[in-house]
Each structure stands twice: as structure tokens, then as C-alpha cells.
């Protein structure tokens, strides 16, 4: 089962783990990306995410296919928030189950790296002074390489 979702809702770790857990699996691995309160000495108060939603969902589903070709995985869940994400809240959640830990751990690492590099989701940091800055992922395949 692949569960890919873009949402403005708060991400639920408990629900996600329940979704991917299966009696045939001995491992559930997870990555949570959360909003931190600082960047380069500036106080961050929230993040704002936007996406080209139809393309982002297509890329996330493609990523699930790629991971299944590389590892023996049971369930894959990739949820990403859009809109406002306050400090300490999760913006991205990846939860993967497999029979053994190595597959799910490696797949989670691969998933977040490829998500950052290929999925059209953009992040704006909003600072306590009221200004903001759109941030490019250094892994992003369409970012300029200088």
C-alpha cells in the first residue's frame, strides 16, 4: 500500500504508524521534518509551503515505485504539509514498513533525499521581524549549480 498525501492538516504520527504496520513486518522506520526556530541567526516563526500539487503527487507516487524496485517494502506513507507550519510542527512525514530494518531504514533516507531533489514543493521561512525568504533545496534538481 502506498499512501501519498499533500495536506494542510497537522500530521499524525500515531495514525501513520498504524497505517503502515503489518503483522508480516518487523520494522517500521520514520522520518519527520519539523520547523525549527532559527536559520542563519534569524528567528523563524513559521514556514509556508506551496506546491504544484498534481505534479508533486505524481512525483511522490513515482518515488514509491522507485523504492519498491530497490527494496522489499510492505507499506509506504509520504505526507507533506502545505500552507502554514508553525515552529515544532511536522511538515513532512515518511513512514515505511518492511520485513527487516535495513530495507525500511535505507528507503526512508532515499525517500527524503529524492523528495527534496525532485518534488515541486517550495518553502518560505517567515522571520520574527515579519520578513520572509523563499528557500531552495540544495538537493533540488532544477536549482542552479554554482
From TrEMBL:
Enzyme class: transferase
Chain's role: Catalytic subunit of the molybdopterin synthase complex, a complex that catalyzes the conversion of precursor Z into molybdopterin. Acts by mediating the incorporation of 2 sulfur atoms from thiocarboxylated MOCS2A into precursor Z to generate a dithiolene group.
The keyword Transferase is annotated on this UniProt entry: yes
Biological pathway: Cofactor biosynthesis; molybdopterin biosynthesis
Oligomer and partners: Heterotetramer; composed of 2 small (MOCS2A) and 2 large (MOCS2B) subunits.
Transferase recorded as keyword: yes
Name of the protein this chain belongs to: Molybdopterin synthase catalytic subunit
Taxonomic placement: Eukaryota, Metazoa, Echinodermata, Eleutherozoa, Echinozoa
Amino acid at each position: 500500500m502506498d499512501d501519498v498525501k499533500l495536506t494542510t492538516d497537522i500530521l499524525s504520527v500515531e495514525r501513520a504508524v498504524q497505517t503502515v504496520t503489518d503483522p508480516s513486518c518487523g520494522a517500521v522506520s520514520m522520518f519527520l521534518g519539523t520547523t525549527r526556530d532559527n536559520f542563519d541567526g534569524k528567528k523563524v516563526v513559521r514556514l509556508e509551503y506551496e506546491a504544484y500539487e498534481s505534479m508533486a503527487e505524481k512525483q511522490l507516487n513515482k518515488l514509491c515505485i522507485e523504492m519498491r524496485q530497490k527494496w522489499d517494502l510492505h507499506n509506504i506513507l509520504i505526507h507533506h504539509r502545505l500552507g502554514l507550519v508553525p515552529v515544532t510542527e511536522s511538515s513532512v512525514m515518511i513512514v515505511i514498513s518492511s520485513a527487516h530494518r535495513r530495507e525500511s531504514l535505507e528507503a526512508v533516507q532515499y525517500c527524503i533525499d529524492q523528495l527534496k531533489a525532485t518534488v515541486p514543493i517550495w518553502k518560505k521561512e517567515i522571520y520574527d521581524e515579519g520578513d520572509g525568504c523563499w528557500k531552495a533545496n540544495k538537493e533540488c534538481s532544477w536549482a542552479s549549480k554554482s
